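Researcher: I'm comparing several assemblies side by side, and this is the next one on my list. It has 392 residues spread over four chains. Same procedure as the others: predict the full complex and return the structure.
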Amino acid sequence: MARPQAFERDQVLTDAMRLFWRQGYNATSIKDLTEATHLQPGSLYAAFKNKRNLFIQSLNHYFNDLHTSVVSLLHSNRPPLQRIHDFFAYLLEQTDRDTESKGCLLVNTLLEIPTDDKEINQRVSNMLQTVEKEFCRVLEEAQLKGDLAPTFKPDELARMLITGIFGLRVYKRMQPDRQAMQAVVNNLLSVLDNTR
Amino acid sequence: MARPQAFERDQVLTDAMRLFWRQGYNATSIKDLTEATHLQPGSLYAAFKNKRNLFIQSLNHYFNDLHTSVVSLLHSNRPPLQRIHDFFAYLLEQTDRDTESKGCLLVNTLLEIPTDDKEINQRVSNMLQTVEKEFCRVLEEAQLKGDLAPTFKPDELARMLITGIFGLRVYKRMQPDRQAMQAVVNNLLSVLDNTR
DNA sequence: TCCATTATTGAATGATCGTTCAATAATACT
DNA sequence: AGTATTATTGAACGATCATTCAATAATGGA
């Protein structure tokens, strides 16, 4: 016995997320958000408490999508090292389609939000560490199969690859051509071929 | 025959730069800047036109310092590949001392400023490309001396190392311990050891 | 059909934003 | 000493910020 909600929470979060992704947290105003979501300020605040909380929900929404992609790529039935290559191929494709150079919302957030905002930094760090762990498991699997030299430490390699991805996300802002990005990936992945 | 300027332009730029570095462009207000520089708004605007221009001057100031460090490290009299290692050792030290996790102002700016701000993006990109070229020249020198396999393309390697630095700058925000960062650097630099 | 409950509206709030400018102060030259 | 010139001050401006809330609308159950 009450008036029903007229909007879909998921759709609103998608709209908000896209805006934060394109403009960053500080540069996105409530006015921007009301226009993008077609919700009035009051509704936005009733549903999401405030701007900061809406942002956090947007981050969660982004990570859900990201995690789905990562899992489907890294848990496929292809050989482990091939799956790593698949991931980077996917990253390059996505980077290519991203004509606005938005990059990764999590990486952008990590650099924009002040260090002393423990909550947001912790949340984003955890999300990225989750991805790092997925990488690590695949590398362990490769090592077990003998596709990766036993002298490697999978956790260190995973960390290095994740760092490489972060770097690519930044490098893209310099508007390099696809070939340049591809060459970086090739050199990065050449570490895995090392027999030591 | 006029009243002399009471402040040192360089000191003011240093103060402003530190603030932009710590907080980012959008999160830094004129009030913040007047407090940090001890200049009133009017003086600030008389000397630097507006906030945006003050930021651009701060970027230049930052790059001057950066370029000095890079040159002294990469043009030393040590063997070329050793100079690359020196650079990363310096980077790790600096990262360690940076308890606020400010990272690199240029990298932060590249991610914060919208893509459609051509001027700032172009300026920052040029600065970073300058560093990349310094790396490239050292790698060419190493190749000439036979310290680097001739199959490598120095420009691609330089790009990969720069990307690695960007990545480390981001990774640092996740508050990793020094060992973790060191391992990333080791794995990154292991590419150079490849004999192909 | 009426009512209790919740959703939506959008104007209003006070704070803060970047920027301007008239008033005042400090200097060098005559 | 007087004056032309430039530097400094800091209050004031309009715009915009995030947030609130009283008024209104829409529903399901009685």
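Model: For your comparison table: The first helix of chain A runs from residue 9 to 23.
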